[in-house]
Amino acid sequence: ETVSTLDSGTPTDLPCCSVTFVNKLQEEVICPICLDILQKPVTIDCGHNFCLKCITQSGETSYGFFKCPLCKTSVRKNTIRLNRLLANLVEKIQALQASEVQSKRKEPTCPKHQEMFYYFCKDDGKFLCFVCRESKDHKSHNVSLIEEAAQNYQGQIQVLQQKEETVQVKAQGVHSVRDQVEHEKQRILTEFERLHQVLEEEKNSLLSRIYWLGSEGAEPQSNYLKKLIDSLKTKQNMPPRQLLEPHLPRSEEFQFLKPTPVPLELERKLSEAKSRHDSITGRMKKFKDHLQADRKKDESRFFKSFNNNDMKGCK
After folding, report:
1. Which residue range is the domain that position 130 belongs to?
2. Using one digit for the tens of pLDDT, what is the confidence trace for 211-254?
3. Whole-number Å distance between alpha carbons of 303 and 315
4. Domain count within the chain
5. CA distance 246 to 3
6. Basic and acidic residues bias: where (predicted)?
7. Is there a single domain that holds both residue 88 and residue 112?
8. In this structure, are 22 and 45 located in the same domain?
């Protein structure tokens, strides 16, 4: 890429200038001592360039000769000469930067050097201009172009998006587990409701049978007692003479009638009802004992597995 200039040294073909191109140019005009843009650049015998002020202060303690801060070559003080070509180059680069700043006036600039931000310091999390990048504060830091740093962060965002997708998949698995739990819950409730209904029907069947047997067995005896009471009331109201008449069979009349015996069929049905009740009660007791023992074992295994998982998670 080239930059056409007028006689005044002001760049006129700015669109062809990229950030990298400007930075490369600026790297050539940095003083190795102050790490800033050369001010009144001078060249010594070994060919290295410095700010006039910086190299003068560097050789103040020596007489006649001093060592180059870069290559340690001994040079004479009186050989320091101004480099006008380099000074013109510095002016053109600064003018180029000023034009670039005008073209990007809305973009933030370095408050210290009034330069555009081109770099990003990962160590400090700050934007840097070219001068800041070459300063002692950031020279040893992990610094990259803003575009490269943005690409790295975009890569991290993609990784996070992939992790988010994985989390969403796992969340779907959690929802699936919840659905299964809810389904199993409803199934348990339904089965126990059915079992409760069966037991309720069996209870009602046994009770109705017992009630029926009770009414069938008690009715003849009730009729007998009613008849006996009525007879006694009748005799109690008789006149004494009639009550003592000889022809009345008093001894037989006052004998209690023998109760009507319970029919054999009724006794058999009562025995069957009792047997069925005993059978159901025995089976229910065995079922209850087995269910309780099995539940205790299952609860022990269930909670023990959770405790083991918690211990592994802590490790």
Report:
1. 108-141
2. 777 766 656 666 666 776 777 677 677 777 666 665 455 544 44
3. 19
4. 2
5. 163
6. 289-302
7. no
8. yes
